[in-house]
Input
Amino acid sequence: MTRRGLVLLALLGLCLSLPARADDALLAQITTRVASSPVLRADFSQTKTLAAMRKPFRIAGHVTYARDAGVLWQVTAPYAVTYLIDARGAAEIDASGQRKAGGGGDNAGAAQAARIMQALLGADLAPLQSSFALAPIRQDAGWQVTLTPHRADLARHLARIVVRGDTAVEQVDILEATGDHTEIRFTAITHDTRLSEAEAALFARPE
Amino acid sequence: MRAGLIVALLSLAGCATVPQHSACTALGAGVRYCLQPLPAGQVLAVNQWVEISVADRPAGERLVFAIDAAGARMDVVGLSPLGQKVFRVTTDHGTLRWDGPQAAEALGRQLPALIQLMLWPEAAVREGLSAGATLAVSAHERRLSGDDTLLLTSRQSASTPAEGAIDARFTQLDARIRITPLED
Output
């Protein structure tokens, strides 16, 4: 190859690597921006639209995200249930704050789901790159990241996830291969440095 | 962020999705029920909070049923309280497709019949029952029996079953189902 050819090849390689580096830089910025608060609280509304079904399914409530402890989902409408999701999986919390036997199940699937959920809520997306191709963009004052599965076992069920936010995750859209669509919106988001005593008690569930 | 996503993915890993011709279900005591279409022009699209308890699990399970039916097609999607899809069962002109955990498939395949017995118009239910079945219907109760054996008691709070709460007991399955419609 001529010297000129080598230079062109080097330039081409540089151009091809630039978008990936830009994506990595933006992902890092997003993570830094969201992860600055160890505790987030928000109201959430979730709408699940099932393929070929006329009536969407909606729930709403309150979510507490603790970077080092997990996520507490408190559904308040149209019924009341509370679930704690952490690295050990999902567990239902009863009215007295105790873990309910058999609620959610601490299986490997739930634990993996919990890890992904925590990663999404904390915008800590880099660990998901083994399963998803991440495409971040700046959007208005905030950002959007599209996660497309590149593992065949995931892609069979999941088309993509779209996460939007600013200083916190504000909306997550999950589009399944079946055509089902789950939209979760977060409003009244507040940042904090630590959990309240009551929240900490709920997170400290026994084995 | 929903756990829904991957929980569904993983739970679906061992699912059966093979359609089968299973329009009719044996209910016990020699009684069978064959799935019936909704009357022409009628559509059912409801979300219900469902509490199911069986003899060996008295604490029971709580699910949301999303039901959509028109004509001979009926879809029932079971969702966890956080909205994760647990199963989907679809019937269409005598074909039944189960998409859910294999461990729940046997009961799941009976689900469309059980739902129709509770929710479908009385005339349609009678049309689907085999000879020898006795269906007694009052304003707020349905009692199905065969060969002098009680198979189902379904008490409803509204004159139109799908519009109110239902408390049903399936004797042969030793199962109790309490249904509350969910409003938006």
